[in-house]
Amino acid sequence: MVAGTAVSAISAYGYQVIAGRSLGAEGLAPIGVLWTISFLVFTVLFIPVEQYVTRRLTLGGHHIDATRRDTRLVVATVVGGVTAGAVFAIATIDVFFDGSSGYVLVMIGILSSRAVMAIARGFLAGARRFQAYGLGVALEGLTIVGSAAVISIVEPSTLAFSLALVWSPLAVLVVLPFKKPEENEAAVGTLKQGAGFLGALIVGTAASQMILAAGPIVVGLIGGTAAAISIFFITFTLFRGPVTSSYNIAALVLPDFTLLAARGEQHRLSEWAGRLGLIGVGTVPIFGIAGYVLGPWVIEVLYGSEFMPSSTLAALGAAGVGAALIALFLNQIYVARGETGRLAAIWIVAVIAAGITLAVFSSEPMIRVGTAFVVGEVTAMTLLTVVGVATHWSER
Predict the structure, then answer these.
(1) CB neighbours of residue 241 within 10 Å
(2) What are the pLDDT digits (tens) for 126-163?
(3) CB 123 within 8 A of CB 53
(4) Where do the domains of the chain lie?
(5) What pLDDT is attached to residue 176?
(6) Which residues contact 175 (CB under 8 A, 6 or more apart)?
(7) What is the pLDDT of residue 394?
(8) What is the Cα–Cα distance from 159 to 27, expressed in whole angstroms?
(9) DSSP string for residues in 266-329
């Protein structure tokens, strides 16, 4: 799985480098918006669906029938995500897509294929087919970068590059994710699972992704130019790579965390929360310093000088990603425990902190949004750690 995750991350960067150098800052802007919205819908709605399926199969002893009673809930969530993306594309067609209706169809295609990928990965993780999971994400990455390479030679247009985002997620089907798994004994104990669990998880995930991934959209809405949107998108997407890649690693730890929760070993999850929080204390400043020193140079080398951010923007992006990476793994503790309501409350507080920062901080759009990003992520990481450690402390 680790190797597949690395291939996927490098391939995503490869796609962006090829597309960015082929299209330039102005031409890449629609793809930046498509990528951002599809990433938001995927992480807000489809990753929770993946986790829901993973957790259901873990609790059900990998019995594939355990997810059938939840089919309507999963389908409704997927349809809602695809519809939301389509509505956004229609509403902003003149703002972000130069009035081209083809991008609406592209948005629908991207979200539909990514929904299939999320459900497939949930089955793979729930059945503990981690080798197949890793191969699936690697194939997706190789497909997208291979498609970009061909497009750059044959038809280097914005619409053509966006089509590569439509078919690449379906590469996961090569590993046959829905085949009947070996059945094992169900987890001991019972944990909350259902519409309430998934609904609260979606709210919490939505709040977290507003902070993590909505930046390019916010930059545009508060007056940033198309070039500013592209610079922010490239910078934060590059630095966000460790978090994006770690969604796959999170799928590896969630089944084990779920089993600990089901067996009543809550104190061990609290210990993990403390360890992760301590790691975060060191990670945030180290990432920030590295971003300040190396970030602009790396982006200039990869994408060209027109995409190069300021050192301050690079530092903000890297530091916030350091906190987001720790928060991602802290989230898994709450999902495993079934405490998605508490998870949602923490992330809502973090969004409020980021929003206040955006409102009161006076600077140009990219720096304002970058600062709000750091404040939101650090707030979430801190609260997730403190509450995660305090919960069930008496059981130690």
Answers:
(1) 15
(2) 888 888 988 998 999 899 999 999 998 988 888 889 89
(3) yes
(4) 1-186, 189-396
(5) 87
(6) 124, 129, 132, 133, 135, 136, 139
(7) 47
(8) 10
(9) HHHHHHHHHHHHHHHHHHHHHHHHHHHHHHHHHHHHHH-GGGPPPHHHHHHHHHHHHHHHHHHH
